[in-house]
Amino acid sequence: MELNANNQKFVNESLKKGFRVDGRGIYDLRNLKIDLGNQYGSVEVQLGETRVHAKTSIELARPLPDRPSEGIFIISVDFSGPGSLQQGEKVSGPASGVAAGSDAEGRAAAQEVAISRLLEKILKSTRVVDVESLCISVGEQVWRLRVDVHFLDYGGNYLDAGIIAAVSSLSHFRRPEVLKVGETTTIYSVEERAPVPLSINNIPACLTFAYFENELLVLDPSYLEEKFMSGSISIAINSNSELCCISKAGGIAIEPDTVNLCIVVAIEKAKFLIDAIRSALK
Amino acid sequence: MTSKQDLFVVPGMEIDLGLITGIKDENSQTENSEESAVILGPGLFEKNSKILSFAAGNIATNFKDTIWVNYNKKRYIPEVSESIIGTVVARTAEGYKVDIGSAQPANLNGLSFENATKRNRPNLSVGTIVYAKVVLSNKYIEPEIECFNRNTGKADGYGELEDGFVIKASLGYCFKLFKGTALILELLGNHIAYELAVGLNGFVWVKAGSPETTILVANAIKNAEHLSESDCALMVKQLVSFL
Amino acid sequence: MSSESGPISKGIVTTGSLITRDGVFMKGHGTFVENGEIYASITGTVERINKLVSVTSLRQRYSGEIGDIVVGRISRVGLKRWLVNVNGRQDARRKSASDELQMRKFFKEGDVVFAEVQSVFVDGALSLHTRSLDYGKLRNGVVCYVSPALVVRSRSHLISLHCGVDVVLGVNGCIHIGKHRVFSHLQVDSDNDEAYLKDEQSSLESNTKAGNSSTLPNNDYSDIYSDVNDDIDISTRTNISRVHNCIVILDRLFIRLNSTSINTAYEQSLQYFVPELLKQDVANEIAESRDNKNSAMTFKLLVNSVAYGILSRTDDLSAQRYTIE
Amino acid sequence: MLIFSEYLGLRIDGRRANELRKITCKTNVIDYTDGSAYFEQGNTKILVGILGPREAKQRSASQTTQVTLNVEFLVSPFSSVERKKRSKYDRRSVEIATSIKQTFEHVIIGQLFPRSQIDIFIHLLQQDGGVLEACINATCLALIDAGIPMTDYVCAINAGYVDDSPMLDLNMVEEASFDTPNITIAVLIRSGKICLLQLESTLAVDLLAPVLELAKTGCKYIHSVLDSTIKESTQSMINSVTL
């Protein structure tokens, strides 16, 4: 309900003077809370007001015909209920340039598709989970790993919170141990043998910047900033500081060196996020 | 207005009307035998001759004939003569549609502004915010709001709000702020000059000299909702030190 | 005057190219200003009228001006107005004071209307009026769409070809080709009663404003608004479709439409059957033979340099459509 | 082994590292559209039709103060090796359509056409890598042909690293091969600003800058091709009209 022209003008005015509406610095992340659930692989992440829950589960399956030696890694994203982006989208106005009614829902639905596709791309392109390690016996039996990401409360910047939740959940998850002796493969139930962690190659972190008129940048946009931004760029960096994914689709055009600036800041902040995830999992 | 021990009710609890008389007896000592008509305020409803509460909150009465429940909610139900802050959502032929956080957007007639005539009427664009008063609210038709005081014809505060920043708060907190009894307002007032407009529909409009002071005031008010008075003073001292 | 003003580009400019840096110029249609410099926002030729710089393009949708004569089709009747689709940025509006039922007696959905632009709204919608003799409903014919740039804003928009066919050139690129409309009986009856002529020709609201109730034109004048197409004999029908195909060829080859170009194209097309007209080779022939002196249009050079694949009316998007030279 | 031969440095289709595939394009190819373009980049063939700006059809779009853009991206079943009927709403098509809509939303000068909509129909006839880039170039051409005011040309290209040397304009084989990181970039020609940037594989940070530079020169070349096509077709129109 705070989408009105006054707030839009106020957000822009204060950004010009280097102030953010929630008092943060330009490159400050909101405070991050990662709570591990009682089950392996169930994690809830709170980034400022944004709350996401991720759950990893596994089951046996036949491998895909064209990739007999690889396990299957599925990411499913769910926005239903309070977390959906349609909340509070009713209000129109020059602020979001969006008319009330279906158009707002249309725009929100497209945003949800964009977020889930990006989340999938980042997790797949950075090869967080080594799919070869999920193979039990080539061509017959593989593990089918599935991460469910539920977005619970929309406080802005779902993508970064979603990545943190998914990655923490994958690292925290334990699968039943498998012993392969010659032809016979025995799968120990959780009671018999302690479950084994997945082989995680590296932990990526995603940093999203929102930008406003004449190249004003802010990291980790909050609800209001995300509604009034003129565009955003998301940069995913893995644990050995390599670029894994960049997505800048739409919004006003920006200078190339603004992109480089974002990358430099992203590398710095990615280290911080990855350490936060690692310390939470100890 | 509330009796010494606040009687806390939960939804579905039966209220016996003796409460009004009971409280009244303590103060006025007059015996009130015959059945006087009782007005049920928000939070209460009548079901086969029993009064039940549908809200969780404290019972309150005005000792004469009305009894209601003070309960906190976020979804605003328009009540006549309440001041609210709304956002213009659409322009209609005779005025504007204003979103005030209730089920349906309210109608604001183009002429219901201080000295507005058929020819010179204020020209609000979509997205501007207005401070207005609810003049018509009933279950079946869209609420009606106005931006001027009907009897004096003056705006006295109502009308378009320029610039400033709007924050969302729960209705109960806004009610407290509206009455002006909240300590946080004075504490901030000692240090910063700021303008404030409180809408009973859960919006507070703040405007101070510069963006950073407006941010400070807005965040202070937002955080003070659940702080005790001493913590409020502490918080303000800390915030002000940053200036 | 241009000596002391800064350099200004001439001829064809494409989107985004700089026109002039000099602050003295004002930006006109088809341009935009970015930190003091004027850039072209569309592709076309630069036109400078002393201080005003604008870019005119041949490929833009029709955006109306006051006084334009347009041909359109009624798309909706309601809310005290007729909505006319004139292939413009917004549907044109034609106000009427009477209620819907009465309005349908004059124009209803699907009628082809011939009107003049009265005013242009800020969002590009036009308001039309039919307040002079030859405006109103067009019948007994066919409409075809050409690009608006080809129709020149001239006084005479009604061309009567000697083969008994009327061509109404709408500035918005809609052209109505129909049976010749005989005006005689109209003049005779109505000249004795000036008020009456004004009444049924002029738009309704001026009528009601004048106080007298909107008298419904009695039936013998209803043919002005009747939408019954009277039966047309075969020869006129073929003439109508011949002229139609000629206009389609002219549009394909992007040749300006005026009485001369249509007449000459019509004469050249006489040697062919009407359906043949739309075949590419026949069209080229017509174009070549059009090389007569008075129209000074050397088709020959034109057709060879621009080989358009011409869509034959009957079949769908045939493969020939995408042959690229 | 993607490099055809080591010492010659030729790629699998015989091109050098910074060579683009042959681009042929043509405007005004469909009659009943306001603007249309046929664009071929190597074996990727795209047809774009533009209708608009015209009266907004859906109710909601007719309220806005800006033009509403809607983009439909259709893949023809015969477009790639195996015939597959893809619906307009499968995820990849929706994603490409939204990327194009977002890219052009800020380039088209939308305030000139309030309450109107522009429809862009993109038809992928044949695909051989670089689909999103070719769609952007084709749409830019069609928009200019339709005379829709824009602030600049938008040219797009993909580039990447094959056997760790930067390559321009990757075809399907190069794009899909395992270890080639590739980026897609759309650039505003005049200001050199970046409209769209997508990287979907791991790439060392310092390798990004050179590939960005290479891609920008590629875009400049594409711009020259598009520009000459537009100039040619405008010139021929002017000739035939003024004749």
Automatic annotation (TrEMBL), chain A:
Keyword Membrane belongs to the record: no
Domain of life: Eukaryota
Subcellular location: Cytoplasm; Nucleus
Gene Ontology CC annotations of this record: cytoplasmic exosome (RNase complex); nuclear exosome (RNase complex)
Domain Exoribonuclease phosphorolytic: 29-176, 202-268
InterPro entries (alphabetical): ExoRNase_PH_dom1, ExoRNase_PH_dom2, ExoRNase_PH_dom2_sf, Exosome_comp_Rrp42_subfam, PNPase/RNase_PH_dom_sf, Ribosomal_Su5_D2-typ_SF, Rrp45
Source organism per UniProt: Smittium megazygosporum
Family: Belongs to the RNase PH family.
A Pfam family it matches: RNase_PH
Annotated GO biological process: exonucleolytic trimming to generate mature 3'-end of 5.8S rRNA from tricistronic rRNA transcript (SSU-rRNA, 5.8S rRNA, LSU-rRNA); nuclear mRNA surveillance; nuclear polyadenylation-dependent rRNA catabolic process; rRNA catabolic process; TRAMP-dependent tRNA surveillance pathway; U1 snRNA 3'-end processing; U4 snRNA 3'-end processing; U5 snRNA 3'-end processing
Source organism phylogeny: Eukaryota, Fungi, Fungi incertae sedis, Zoopagomycota, Kickxellomycotina
Annotated keywords: Cytoplasm, Nucleus, RNA-binding
Listed PANTHER family: EXOSOME COMPLEX COMPONENT RRP45 (PTHR11097:SF14), EXOSOME COMPLEX EXONUCLEASE RIBOSOMAL RNA PROCESSING PROTEIN (PTHR11097)
Protein name, entry field: Uncharacterized protein
An example Gene Ontology molecular-function term: mRNA 3'-UTR AU-rich region binding
Endoplasmic reticulum among keywords: no
UniProtKB/TrEMBL annotation, chain B:
GO biological process per UniProt: CUT catabolic process; exonucleolytic trimming to generate mature 3'-end of 5.8S rRNA from tricistronic rRNA transcript (SSU-rRNA, 5.8S rRNA, LSU-rRNA); nuclear polyadenylation-dependent rRNA catabolic process; poly(A)-dependent snoRNA 3'-end processing; regulation of gene expression; TRAMP-dependent tRNA surveillance pathway; U4 snRNA 3'-end processing
Family annotation (Pfam families): KH_6, RRP40_S1
GO function terms (MF aspect): RNA binding
Keyword Cytoplasm: yes
Keyword annotations of the record: Cytoplasm, Exosome, Nucleus, RNA-binding, rRNA processing
Top-level taxonomic group: Eukaryota
Places the protein is found: Cytoplasm; Nucleus, Nucleolus
Domain K Homology intervals: 164-211
InterPro entries from the UniProt entry: Exosome_RNA_bind1/RRP40/RRP4 (IPR026699), KH_dom_type_1 (IPR004088), KH_dom_type_1_sf (IPR036612), NA-bd_OB-fold (IPR012340), RRP40_KH-I (IPR049469), Rrp40_S1 (IPR037319)
GO cellular component terms, A-Z: cytoplasmic exosome (RNase complex); nuclear exosome (RNase complex); nucleolus
Family (UniProt): Belongs to the RRP40 family.
Cross-referenced PANTHER family: EXOSOME COMPLEX COMPONENT RRP40 (PTHR21321:SF1), PNAS-3 RELATED (PTHR21321)
Record-given protein name: Ribosomal RNA-processing protein 40
TrEMBL record, chain C:
Location, primary (coarse class): nucleus
GO cellular component terms listed in the entry, alphabetical order: cytoplasmic exosome (RNase complex); nuclear exosome (RNase complex)
A biological-process GO annotation: exonucleolytic trimming to generate mature 3'-end of 5.8S rRNA from tricistronic rRNA transcript (SSU-rRNA, 5.8S rRNA, LSU-rRNA)
GO molecular function terms attached to this record: RNA binding
Transcription regulation as UniProt keyword: no
Coiled-coil segments on the chain, per record: none
Domain RRP4 S1 residues, every copy: 61-119
Cellular compartment(s): Nucleus
Protein family according to the UniProt entry: Belongs to the RRP4 family.
Stated name of the protein: Uncharacterized protein
Species: Smittium megazygosporum
Lineage summary: Eukaryota, Fungi, Fungi incertae sedis, Zoopagomycota, Kickxellomycotina
TrEMBL record, chain D:
Molecular function as annotated in GO: RNA binding
Annotated Gene Ontology cellular component terms: cytoplasmic exosome (RNase complex); nuclear exosome (RNase complex); nucleolus
Protein's UniProt keywords contain Cytoplasm: yes
Keywords: Cytoplasm, Exosome
Positions of the Exoribonuclease phosphorolytic domain: 19-149, 152-217
Gene Ontology biological process: nuclear mRNA surveillance; poly(A)-dependent snoRNA 3'-end processing; rRNA catabolic process; U4 snRNA 3'-end processing
Main location: cytoplasm
InterPro entries: ExoRNase_PH_dom1 (IPR001247), ExoRNase_PH_dom2 (IPR015847), ExoRNase_PH_dom2_sf (IPR036345), PNPase/RNase_PH_dom_sf (IPR027408), Ribosomal_Su5_D2-typ_SF (IPR020568), RNase_PH (IPR050080)
Description of how the protein assembles with itself and partners: Component of the RNA exosome complex. Specifically part of the catalytically inactive RNA exosome core complex (Exo-9) which may associate with the catalytic subunits RRP6 and DIS3 in cytoplasmic- and nuclear-specific RNA exosome complex forms. Exo-9 is formed by a hexameric base ring of RNase PH domain-containing subunits and a cap ring consisting of CSL4, RRP4 and RRP40.
Name this protein carries in UniProt: Ribosomal RNA-processing protein 41
Source lineage: Eukaryota, Fungi, Fungi incertae sedis, Zoopagomycota, Kickxellomycotina
